[in-house]
Automatic annotation (TrEMBL):
InterPro entries reported for this sequence: Hc1 (IPR010886)
Protein name, per record: Histone H1-like protein Hc1
UniProt-recorded Gene Ontology molecular function terms: DNA binding; structural constituent of chromatin
Source organism superkingdom: Bacteria
Function in brief: Might have a role analogous to that of eukaryotic histone proteins.
Originating species: Larkinella arboricola
Protein family (similarity comment): Belongs to the histone H1/H5 family. HCT subfamily.
Amino acid sequence: MARFDEIKNLVLSLEGDFEKFYEKGNQAAGTRVRKGMQDLKTLAQNIRAEVQDQKNAKES
């Protein structure tokens, strides 16, 4: 569950930058959003691999 909390915290930390980019047109905030989304993608891929490894270990 700690990994799920990491995802939630990352998404919540980006909320301000999303608002700045979409509502105020702040381009620097858009850059931070893109980086945060890349971090989210990487985290999700890592979690996916962990889940698959644990699933495979239990099947053996």
